[in-house]
Specification:
It is a single chain. This protein is mainly alpha-helical. It has a single domain (3-395), classed as Up-down Bundle (Growth Hormone, Chain: A), CATH 1.20.1250.20. Helix content is 79%, strand content 0%. The protein contains 15 helices and no strands. Helix 3 (42-66) crosses helix 5 and helix 3 packs antiparallel against helix 13.
């Protein structure tokens, strides 16, 4: 591998470390933050997802408007935006309405970076090792989340951190790491010269050739919302678990993911996208059927809210986090079927907009469904919807090697 390419990849690994340290000190704490600071119920928790998910709808439009700057430059801006929103939430405890504004700002930065992360990562990867590299990027992400999770766990357990204190230090620290990520991306832009990631103005691209990818993105919007909101809410609302337990489960998921993601990348290169799409579909069906069964038991009083049922619920939380990271299968599937390399970023951004529109609908309707009929109906519905993933796995062709170089 040329030295220049090696240095670029190494620097991108450093970016991944900084950004995931920021995520580790913030993302996993939001549900408890809403509960402990603002005393939200399930329906309010669903409504909070409006400002959190709306940036995902706007991402395509923003990236389209700013595409002349290049992917790395937009990623630099994204880190700055995320840092600003989170720093304010860390330094003050605003009213609920004002909190939603700065939550939106932070979420805007986080969502802007999402499609750019995959696009930049694939553009830096060797043509014949895209799956391997993406797996490595995922693996280091989990390793960093593990370190951050351990730090957060002990700092909360020994009451150094508290979400009810005047300064929310986890959010402040996370904002600082976003700034570090921004500085590292500035250096990466200098090294690449912006050539690899600049492209012509992004236009609306909706091609019939990508129909299965769009469908997978829409279904994932539902699955993601349940994983991020209602899965943890079973532990927080139904079972009364605090920050340290949720963080510890995140640590376990990160530990497993550190080994799982690189292996997943190798499996993609070895077995092809089609077979891995089967695994992706079956994992979601299994997880949400189990979640539904357990939630039904907790709601009906037939399952105890301690002991083995709680342990199984915690295990599902971990498995769900791992299943959600199988999104690299969908990204590499898109790369393998892209008609031109320039289609990848706009299609990733458009798919993100689709999945976030669905996410908003699911967040609001799911919260109402939870308080009106019971949480188990949410999980049963998503398990049934995940059969679409299985149908797509059956229908797609399996391009065994990625030939396109971004």
């Amino acid at each position: 591998m040329p030295t220049k390419r090696r240095n670029e990849i190494f620097l991108f690994f450093a970016v991944i470390v900084a950004v995931n340290l920021a995520a580790g000190f913030s993302e996993g704490l939001f549900s408890n933050y809403f509960k402990e600071v603002y005393f939200t119920d399930a329906s309010q928790r669903g409504l909070i997802e409006l400002p959190r998910e709306m940036p995902g709808v706007l991402t395509f439009l923003i990236i389209s408007a700013l595409t002349f700057l290049g992917d790395i430059t937009i990623a630099i801006m994204a880190q700055g935006i995320a840092a600003f929103g989170l720093m304010v939430l860390g330094l003050v405890t605003p009213t609920f309405g004002v909190m939603l504004v700065f939550l939106f700002i932070n979420s805007l930065g986080v969502h802007l970076y999402m499609p750019l992360r995959d696009s930049i990562g694939m553009s830096l990867s060797e043509p014949d090792q895209v799956g391997k590299r993406m797996g490595q990027f995922g693996g280091i992400s989990y390793a960093v989340l593990l370190v951050a999770g351990l730090a957060v766990f002990f700092l909360f357990r020994f009451e150094v951190f508290s979400l009810t204190s005047p300064i929310k230090w986890p959010f402040v620290i996370a904002a600082i790491f976003y700034v570090v990520g921004m500085l590292l991306l500035i250096q990466l832009r200098r090294m690449t010269g912006g050539i690899r990631t600049k492209r012509e103005k992004i236009k609306w691209i909706f091609r019939k050739e990508y129909k299965y990818y769009y469908l997978l993105a829409i279904v994932f919007g539902v699955q993601k919302q349940v994983m991020l909101v209602f899965g943890p809410w079973v532990l927080i609302e139904t079972l009364g678990q605090r920050v340290d337990v949720i963080v510890m489960l995140g640590i376990i998921a990160s530990t497993l993911g550190m080994f799982f993601m690189p292996q997943l990348g190798k499996w993609i290169d070895r077995f092809g996208v089609k077979k891995l799409l089967y695994a992706d579909a079956l994992s979601f069906i299994f997880v949400y059927l189990c979640y539904g069964t357990l939630s039904h038991g907790f709601n009906a009083g037939t399952l105890a809210k301690f002991g083995l049922p709680v342990i199984i619920t915690c295990a599902l939380f971990v498995i769900d986090r791992l299943s959600s990271q199988m999104g690299i299968i969908r990204v590499i599937y898109l790369k393998s079927i892209a008609l031109t390399p320039s289609d990848v970023t706009p299609t990733l951004s458009l798919a993100m907009m689709m999945d976030h529109v669905v996410s908003i609908i699911v967040a609001v309707s799911g919260g109402l469904l939870w308080v009106t009929f019971g949480s188990h109906y949410i999980f049963y519905a998503v398990a049934a919807l995940s059969l679409i993933n299985l149908a797509v796995a059956i229908l797609v062709k399996d391009p065994r090697k990625v030939e396109v170089r971004l």
